[in-house]
Amino acid sequence: MVWGKTSNIVKNYLQGKLRFTEFAITNACIAKCSFCEIWKQHPKVFVDKAQALTAIDKLADFGVSHLTITGGEPLLHPQVIDFVERATKRNMHNAVLNAAPQLLMRNDILQRLEGAGCDLLSISFDSGDPVTMAESRKIPHIMDEMAKAMDLIARTSLKTMASVLIWNDNYDKLEAVCLRAKNMGFSYVSLNYPTFSKSQVYPLGGEGISLSREKVIHGLTEAIRLKKTGKYGIINSAISMQNIINYLQDPATARYPCYGGEHVLFVDWFFDVRPCMQLPQVVGNILTMEESALRRPACNDCNMSWYRDFSMFFHSSLKTIPLWLETLSGLKILF
Ligand code: SF4
Questions:
Q1: How far is the CA of 301 from the centre of ligand 1 (A)?
Q2: pLDDT per position in the chain (335 positions), as tens?
């Protein structure tokens, strides 16, 4: 199974069609995060099962070799297991996001995710402090629930990643956050760089992430140091984080632009394919579009982590041997 997913990545890379996709399967959510407005949206949309399976098949045909299933809260979708199962069947490495850990303890969901071939559970983790964490997500006792969920996860083969947004509360205490995640049993940590989006579909922003450029740079500089210690399983590439620091200091000095809309994609709950969660453009609808529509000039308009970090996989050349090495190590960490 793991070999099938790895060889699929290599095959698609050699054919020049390797892609990574975030697929948002619902806008329903339990959390009410201060930096996200999706939970306010009405009506609540859940992707149709048959159409979503067709979408996953088409993405696989287009070379998508990693699928992040997101929302809203994807575990609220009654057919989420079917989507993971189909991604696995198509040899797509896959991750499922979770913001409300109480959902991990219901309906044998962990066993079913494990059986469906889920490669990674990515759980929102904004602070090492339980009170701050509960306040930022508006979920009472969220850390207690997460600790209980982590105990159950430890009895499965599922890998876990603490998904840490750099925000006002933690930019200067990232090591404490990483340490808490490690002590709770998380296999990896991923860092999300704060960004505002005026997208109608995926609005992001709010006071919590209104931190100055200098504070974000402070956080990223610390994250690079922590990455280099090798203690916390930080998966973001140091080269990508440095690229974002350069971008924040002067966008013209960001050496590695983003391949949103070509190699990294966002598919929303209407099956519209967008370059990312930032830009309003729709490249096409995954149910009807052709692969040839996935051509866009490289972009340098924001610092959104998932898109910028995955874009680094397409900048490898003989001049960037350190990037190759980090890329290979990044692939290793995900399997
Ligand atoms: S740089 Fe930002 S706005 Fe441009 S494609 Fe990438 S994620 Fe989207």
A1: 5
A2: 567 998 999 899 889 999 999 999 999 999 998 878 888 899 999 999 999 999 999 999 999 999 999 999 999 999 999 999 999 999 999 999 999 999 999 989 999 999 999 999 999 998 989 999 999 889 999 999 999 999 999 999 999 999 999 999 999 999 999 999 999 999 999 999 988 776 777 777 777 778 899 999 999 999 999 999 999 999 999 999 999 999 999 999 999 999 999 999 999 999 999 999 989 899 999 999 999 999 999 999 999 999 999 998 888 665 556 666 766 665 555 55
Ligand 1 in reach of 239 Cβ (< 6 A):
no
pTM of the model: 0.94
- Give the residue numbers spanning the domain of 118: 2-333
Evaluate: CB of 84 within 6 angstroms of ligand 1: no
- Residues 212 and 254: their CA atoms lie apart, in Å, by 19
Interval between CA 118 and ligand 1 midpoint (Å): 27
Indicate whether residue 302 lines ligand 1 (CB < 6 A). yes
Number of structural domains (the chain) is 1
> Strand, coil or helix: what is 102?
helix
232 vs 116: CA distance, rounded Å? 27
Cβ of 244 closer than 6 Å to ligand 1, yes or no, is no
Task: Tell whether ligand 1 has an atom less than 6 A from the beta carbon of residue 299.
Answer: yes
- What is the CATH number for 199? 3.20.20.70
Residue 141 burial (C-beta neighbours within 10 Å; 0-12, 13-18, 19+)? middle
Ligand 1 atom closest to 302 (CA): 2
Tokens encoding 18: 């390797």
Q: Cα 308 to chain center, whole Å? A: 11
Q: Ligand 1 centroid vs 306 CA: distance in angstroms?
A: 10
